[in-house]
Amino acid sequence: MSFDTLAPVYRPLEWVLAGRLLQRSRTAFLPQLQGCRRALLLGEGPGRFLEELVAACPDLEVTVLERSPGMIREAERILAPEQRDRVRFEAVEIQNWCPASAPYDVVASHFFLDCFQPPEVARIVERVAGATSPQAHWLVSDFRVPRRGWRRLRAQWIHGIMYAFFRTATEVSARQVTPPDPYLRQAGFRVHGRQHFNCGLIYSAWWRRKAA
Q1: At CB < 8 A and 24+ separation, what contacts does 191-198 make?
Q2: What is residue 129's predicted lDDT score, i.e. its pLDDT?
Q3: What is the C-alpha end-to-end distance of the chain, expressed in Å?
Q4: Which of 38, 54, 108, 141 could form a disulfide with 204 if both were Cys (CB 3.0 to 4.6 A apart)?
């Protein structure tokens, strides 16, 4: 099985398991992107964030990096005809991606970096950050493990089930969530906003270059 196999059922599966919870975290800081011109979406999947992004920012040009052709087909279906000229899909592994010459002023990695081990996360952040502008935004949504108490035990249990499924179904390399915070700071970003959802199981963060 792969993300291609999951693509046709990914949206209804997310709705059954989480309702609008993941989408709320993806779009928590969407209003901060007004006026941006070029966006890079990492591992966008079936296009739930893309759909709201192109509607909220009508002048934004978007590049979507998604290794699964099946997920790309699902994402293309949600775009209106007048939106398709503004969105370019690249079916490529992030490790093999060649950045465009013009820098991006928005990066969004929603439920993507949790698929990789720490050295891979470090390389991805460094590579993508090198293709961003001095005032770039970076939106991150992902799972997390709270520091203590029953929330921590609950998150560890949920993560164990989640990673057991995705390592079998899609062959992701990660065994646990790697917070990207130290790598983003090293790349010159600082956090401007953070929200937690579902008793700390999920978070959304808005990062921006220090130069901004």
Answers
A1: 192/32, 193/28, 193/29, 193/32, 195/25, 195/28, 196/144, 197/21, 197/24, 197/25, 198/21
A2: 96
A3: 43
A4: 141
Q: Which domains does the chain have, with CATH numbers?
A: 3-209 (3.40.50.150)
Nearest by Cα to 35 from 85, 138, 105, 103: 105
Distances (CA, A) of 155 to 59, 185, 194: 39, 25, 18
- pTM, two decimal places: 0.92
Q: According to the model, what pLDDT value does residue 2 have?
A: 60
Q: How far is CA 65 from CA 44, 90, 148, 154, 176, in A?
A: 7, 5, 35, 32, 23
Q: Quick one: residue 37, left, alpha or beta (phi over 0 = left, psi -120 to 50 = alpha)?
A: alpha
> Helix, strand or coil for residue 3?
helix
> H or E segment at 157?
helix 149-169
Q: Which two tokens stand for residue 146?
A: 């709270």
What does the alpha-carbon distance between residue 169 and residue 84 come to, in Å, rounded to a whole number?
A: 31
- Nearest-angstrom CA–CA distance, 207 and 100: 22
Residue 181 neighbours by CB under 8 Å, 6+ apart? 191
Give the bridge partners for 140, in sequence order: 109, 205
- Mean pLDDT per block of 10 residues along the chain (212 residues) reads 68 77 96 95 94 94 94 92 93 88 93 93 96 96 94 92 79 85 97 96 94 58
